[in-house]
Amino acid sequence: MVEPPSQAATLPVHELWCKQVAIDQATDTYLDPAAGRITLAEWVSIWEQGHIAGPAKRAAYDSHLRNHILPRFGRIPLTQINRHAVKVFVKRLKTDVIIAEQAADLLDAECVE
After folding, report:
1. What number is the average pLDDT over the span 42-52?
2. Does residue 3 belong to any structural domain of this protein?
3. What is the pLDDT of residues 1-37, one digit of tens each?
4. What CATH number should be reported for the domain holding residue 89?
5. What is the rounded distance in angstroms from the CA atom of residue 41 to the CA atom of residue 78?
6. Cα distance between residue 42 and residue 53, in whole Å
7. In the predicted model, what is the mean pLDDT of the chain?
8. CA 78, CA 43: separation in Å to the nearest integer?
9. Parent domain of 79
10. Which residues contact 68 (CB under 8 A, 6 or more apart)?
């Protein structure tokens, strides 16, 4: 586990996390996101193992990751993904959605006539 437990976590959970980090550091397997040694794809793999979601939400996450997020940012270290890059990415996605909706509207209009 790379991410520390939340403030609401119980003391034993926090202690276990600290011990796991110490073990990972001692065996040189600790991946510190802040150190830039981990890509977004690697982080997603870690995140998925501990993230709880129902089947529908999991399918939505998988779809967004597979079709949009990982193709753009998957190979990039976390420290190199900045706010500007994400804003440009989101703007491009919104533009693509608008274009797709306009095309669908056009096709619907063509089919009705």
Report:
1. 86
2. no
3. 445 555 555 567 778 877 877 887 788 777 676 666 7
4. 1.10.150
5. 9
6. 19
7. 81
8. 8
9. 11-112
10. 93
Asked if 47 and 31 touch (Cβ cutoff 8 Å), the reply is no
Number of domains in the chain: 1
Choice between 12 and 72, residue whose per-residue pLDDT is larger:
72
User: At residue 39, what are phi and psi to the nearest 5 degrees?
Assistant: -85, 170
Q: What is the pTM of this model?
A: 0.59
Does any domain span residue 2?
A: no
Please provide the size of the chain in residues: 113
Who wins on pLDDT, 41 or 97?
41
Give CA angle at 33 (14, 11), nearest 5°.
5
Q: Do the domain assignments include residue 4?
A: no
Q: Is residue 45 part of a domain?
A: yes
User: What gap in Å lies between CA 13 and CA 19, rounded to an integer?
Assistant: 10
HSE-CB at 54 with a 13 A cutoff on CA atoms is: 2
